[in-house]
Amino acid sequence: MNLTLHVWRQKGPKDSGRMVQYVARDINEHMSFLEMLDVVNEQLIERGEEPIAFDSDCREGICGMCSMVINGRPHGPDPGTTVCQLHMRHFRDGDTIYIEPWRAAAFPVIRDLVVDRGSFDKIIQAGGFITANCGSAPDANANPVAKEQADKAFAAAACIGCGACVAACPNGSAMLFTAAKLSHMHHLPQGQPERLRRTKHMVTTMDEAGFGNCTNHYECEAACPKEINRDVIASMNRDFAKASLVYRD
Questions:
Q1: Which of 21-25, 150-154, 243-247 has the lowest mean pLDDT?
Q2: Which pTM value belongs to this model?
Q3: Which of 106, 238, 84 is nearest to 174 (CA)?
Q4: How far, in Å, are 64, 155, 217 from residue 32 at the CA level?
Q5: What is the CATH number assigned to the segment(s) 117-246?
Q6: What CA–CA distance (Å, rounded) separates 186 from 189?
Q7: Which of 202, 165, 158 is CA-nearest to residue 184?
Q8: Is 141 helix (H, G, I), strand (E, B) or coil?
Q9: The CATH number of 3-110 is which of 3.10.20.30, 2.60.40.10, 3.40.50.300, 1.10.260.40?
């Protein structure tokens, strides 16, 4: 399989960047998208050219590092899939593929396809934890949790923090990410005592980081590789409204 790639190349945060065309030759259809880029980079290195910088780690769809927009879609054309789990059989011989980094004011480009997602870390640091005394592990049945609530908490906890929701949103909103992190804890008994304060702090930090607001396009839900439901945003908005009345800090 031979492909024509148009890849975003940018030397650093202050560089203007541009699309550069490459030809990917002899690509096996069973390769993942990142393995295909590895082959392209090997060819670039052999020619003495600078390889394409991109993030990757687990290559199992769980770390959220592989952040790139493929033909206008975060993580590519296969729904519910990260780039590292996207295989080249989804493309055809002779296809032209456009590859870009996440585009968001809160995700500045570091180099080529690598963006700084440190703003997500700031949101988590603002309240993505539960204040509790540490000790020995409690008995599994010490805090009964209804199955419906446990299922919702588990579904929200599936968020891998990749940022596809931000890249897909026309406003660059991080509402789905923030709401998923809150929903994970707010469906469990341990998350109840600090629920409103946690919501206020994390949403405020999200706004301060430069993310846009939600205008109900729901592109975030469509792009999410873990298919997290947009209902978590409505729950977060309700809690934030309550928190705004209780906490003035």
A1: 243-247
A2: 0.93
A3: 106
A4: 15, 26, 30
A5: 1.10.1060.10
A6: 7
A7: 158
A8: coil
A9: 3.10.20.30
